[in-house]
Amino acid sequence: MDSTYVVGIDVGGQTSKLGVVDARGTVLAQTVIRTDTYSEIEPYIAELADAVKKVIKDSGTEGKIKGIGVGAPNGNYYTGTIENAVNLTWGGANVVPFAKLLSEAVGGLPVALTNDANAAAVGEMTYGAARGMKNFIMITLGTGVGSGIVINGEVVYGHDGFAGELGHVAAVRNNGRTCNCGKTGCLETYASATGVARTAREWLELTDEPSLLRSLDNIASKDVYEAAKDGDKLALKIFEFTGKILGRSFADFIAFSSPEAIVLFGGLARAKEFLNGPIEEAMNANVLPLWRGKVKIVYSQLKESDAAILGASALAWEL
Amino acid sequence: MDSTYVVGIDVGGQTSKLGVVDARGTVLAQTVIRTDTYSEIEPYIAELADAVKKVIKDSGTEGKIKGIGVGAPNGNYYTGTIENAVNLTWGGANVVPFAKLLSEAVGGLPVALTNDANAAAVGEMTYGAARGMKNFIMITLGTGVGSGIVINGEVVYGHDGFAGELGHVAAVRNNGRTCNCGKTGCLETYASATGVARTAREWLELTDEPSLLRSLDNIASKDVYEAAKDGDKLALKIFEFTGKILGRSFADFIAFSSPEAIVLFGGLARAKEFLNGPIEEAMNANVLPLWRGKVKIVYSQLKESDAAILGASALAWEL
User: Fold this and answer.
1) pLDDT of B212-251, one tens digit each?
2) Number of other CB atoms surrounding residue B93 within 10 Å
3) Would an 8 Å CB–CB cutoff place A182 in contact with chain B?
4) Model-level pTM greater than 0.90?
């Protein structure tokens, strides 16, 4: 069994990354294709299948592939379908039988599929910061806030396959920010990369506080990070606020599943030096005494360039 | 296997109820002993063991008992201990090895133990409204708000055995009511029987609105229910408010585990006629579109006088 390998595919709105991975989490060969040049699923699957065959050949693992794991927006683990994925050019209002189509196109290899955050959780459990953990919550801090919940060593998929949408719990109940999902006050409107940029723009507008950020035209979370590193007080306050919002929500998540740790991943998690203090403070101020100081905040240990492929690939070991 | 039986014990602050139950959820014999007359655990266990032997004898099931299930405040499923249960006279700041002590006192029958809300969830899954469900959340609306979360057919105990404390998520973030747990704004300060009475007292104080409740000295949630049945407008508004607070929180719970249903149990759940509309409205207004109108609110089907024993007993079938 040491000589089996898996394929991981991360389906993003613009590109799809894929690679062959061994049991230790080494990516042996990888490539990338466009996602957004296809308005129909069939030609996309055909190119993806060719790319899969290519990386298998490049890595010299023909005949030794256990299966394929796919992380995709709105991926449903139970059915292998991608449902109403508006950010995928061929997703639209359809239910795409992705796993079935791909499996057929690659000669019958089994395919497991889930959303990107669940895939990240499995990746972290298999190769990363959550190795050995049976109960943890993965939070991905990217353009949005995603989550993958692991209980008793298994990802929680829920009744319909879509459990773990913690980016859309209420961080702010009244007069909260409008979210892409149609609701207001969702966690991801505050605690994502987009949310941080939004906080910056709001605060620059509402206060006269001097800040390096005032000279910029189009503020991104990365700019806030750079300014914080330069000691900019407003930027530091933005991370304090963001960390507090996250920590308060984490306290409620702990009341749900009592995890050993909350694992953070994604672009915004790189601001650990500014976020971690406020997160831990707010989290411990808002949990029941029995959990105070007991739940770890840990940061992904996967190499960022490989993480998406690794997360998706890890799914395939369970096939 | 049809001829095996289980014993269920519900340990409450004042009394402990116990009974022998068959596979269909019929209570064949039951009795009750005091909990609060003992300041030490040993004499309490001795009397409890005698009572267990008595109900087994009364039901004619000697030699056919599969095991004993116990529901108790702060019960830890993993360790069989009751930890820091301040409402139990012999609980205090101790870790009481309850399952071990009881098992020894009844001649070695296996004992499983968890908290009351988790026991209620297993009871509902085994004999009640959640039969056939693999993913649901049990919410007990009593003096406090308790919860038992079932995912993939199993109760969630978490890393430490104490998962599922949804009575202590933040229902109100700022200027929320003080909770017994030391935090503020916890769900149970609003949505329990105590919370409803608190809302009534607050609103009577803050407004001049006429109400039948004004004539009462010491308002309990039952009084608010009676007033609502008599068409009292303030009482009806109190249930509307309570249902809204519950529904908003349920929306966040759904984002976590995507349950098929939320099952309500307890004294306050009897006010279904006034609570259910507001709960469903607020829940569906606050969930992601993909769950809108899809998650059922159901009410316990267990006979209230038997429910505590049934819930605890159901644990023993898994031994």
Assistant:
1) 999 998 999 999 999 999 999 999 999 999 999 999 999 9
2) 8
3) yes
4) yes
